[in-house]
Amino acid sequence: MTRTTISLHESTLIKVKALSRQEHSTLGETITELLNLGLERKRAQMKKTKNKFVLNTFAMGTPKVSLEDKEAVYSILDESDQ
């Protein structure tokens, strides 16, 4: 195991120590277990939303020009450039 130092809120440390006593494990083992559970949950959430692409659409009313008439479309686009 690798040693490291972390800063915890006092209330969090109290809860983790209590859990550690209940499970008859060391503080390090309890923190490792809790971190692994949190990481697994976070990975699962990210996996669910990873491929979820949402494109918002909005009603824009009726077209001002026939989209089938490419010359009319070009004309409208040229007007907006000026």
Name the features.
82 residues, mainly alpha
Q: Helix and strand layout, with pairings?
A:
Blueprint: H1 10-22, H2 27-50, H3 70-81
Helix pairs in contact: 1-2
Describe, in plain words, how this protein is organized in 3D.
- The protein has helices at residues 10-22, 27-50, 70-81.
- The chain is mainly alpha-helical.
- It has a domain at 10-50.
Poorly predicted runs are none
Going by helix content, strand content and strand pairing, the class is: mainly alpha
Helicity level:
55-70%
Mean pLDDT: 90
Beta strand %: under 5%
Number of helices: 3
Short structural description:
The protein has helices at residues 10-22, 27-50, 70-81.
